Amino acid sequence: xxxxxxxxxxxxxxxxxxxxxxxxxxxxxxxxxxxxxxxxxxxxxxxxxxxxxxxxxxxxxxxxxxxxxxxxxxxxxxxxxxxxxxxxxxxxxxxxxxxxxxxxxxxxxxxxxxxxxxxxxxxxxxxxxxxxxxxxxxxxxxxxxxxxxxxxxxxxxxxxxxxxxxxxxxxxxxxxx
Length: 177
Fold this sequence. Notes:
This protein is mainly alpha-helical. It contains 7 helices and 2 strands; from the N terminus they run ααααββααα.
């Protein structure tokens, strides 16, 4: 079998798999596959840089680092995927729908191939968390002091956000608004 014939058969099998999986819905499996490949490439690059740095890996993560990374990941993921101020970063891949919570937006992914997958990633704090947690973990291994300082700042911001929301709820409750 020639290479071009094999390639045609493979493309046909992939199209059938995508069609069968989607069951009539718009599921951009090719875009998701590209996102997975991109994540794998980023992870491989970080792994290579960490390995070449000669820094030893910790035997296990310290509980405090897990908590700090969790809160910092939460805050940075929401900042990147929902905040009004970061909407210019998402705009090429999304459409504005309306406000969603304090200083947050509801946006939908552009329907065009290529933009759709990036738009989904850019508007989903859960999806964004995978990338952010990986980057923060790599940062902790390569630049521990700077990364811990940045994570501390993000954690303080998450705490301040919680206090702002609690204060607003308390004011609403006491004034009857």
